[in-house]
Amino acid sequence: MRHWSGRVVYARETLKLWNRNRTAPTSFRNDFLLSILPGQNGAGEGMAFVLANNPSLPSNSSGQWLGICNNRTDETKMEPVVAVEFDTRKSYEDDLDDNHVGININSIKSIWQYSLSNLSIILSSGSDIRASIRYHGTSKMFQVFLVQHSIPGQYFYQGDIYIDLSQLLQDEIYLVFARSTRNFTQLNQIKSWNFTTIDE
C-alpha cells in the first residue's frame, strides 16, 4: 500500500522507566530479527522501533515520517518519542542515503545516523538482519547492534550514544514498531522479538 503508515504496539504491559526502588533508570535489551522486502519499483520509506508515552499512530505520518511523528509534532515535546529508524529512502536533505540507521528524539530528523552501505548491510535486500537495541540505565548509554547474515559472511555494526531517557519520557513507556510508505512500497517483517529488562 502506498502513502500508508502503521504501528504495532506491545499492549500487554508498559516499560517502567525506573527500577523497582526508583533509584536508577531501568536497563533493557531489545532483540529482534527483521527483514525488509522492497516493492517492484524500489523500497520506501522505512520502519522504526519506538519508545513512546502515547502508543497511538500520529495522523498524516506516512512517507518520510515513518509513523514516528508528523509535521505538527515534529521537533516538539507534544508526543515524546525516542526511536531507532531503519530508513530505506532518502526523503529529505539531512538523510545520509537510502540505507541508514538513525536515532531520533521527538523528530524525524536523526540526532545520529550511520550509512549501512559502508558495511555492505542492505536493509531492503530481503535478507534477515538481527538487531539489538540496548540501554544501560546507570551509564545512560544507548546502543544499536546489527548483523546481516549473508553469503559469504556476516557484516556487523555497533553504534553508541549517550541518552538520558528520564529527561525525555514519562515513566510509562510503550514499545512500538512503526513503518510507512509513500510512492514506493516494501514489506516490513519482524520475524522474532525478545525484550528483557534488567533491574540494576
UniProtKB/TrEMBL annotation:
GO function term, MF aspect, one: carbohydrate binding
Lineage of the organism: Eukaryota, Viridiplantae, Streptophyta, Embryophyta, Tracheophyta
Domain Legume lectin positions: 5-197
Coiled coil: none
Cross-referenced InterPro entries: ConA-like_dom_sf, Lectin_legB_Mn/Ca_BS, Legume_lectin_dom, Leguminous_Lectin
Record protein name field: Legume lectin domain-containing protein
Keyword Transcription regulation: no
Entry-linked PANTHER family: CONCANAVALIN A-LIKE LECTIN FAMILY PROTEIN (PTHR32401), LEGUME LECTIN DOMAIN-CONTAINING PROTEIN (PTHR32401:SF53)
Keyword annotations of the record: Lectin
Family listed: Belongs to the leguminous lectin family.
Entry superkingdom: Eukaryota
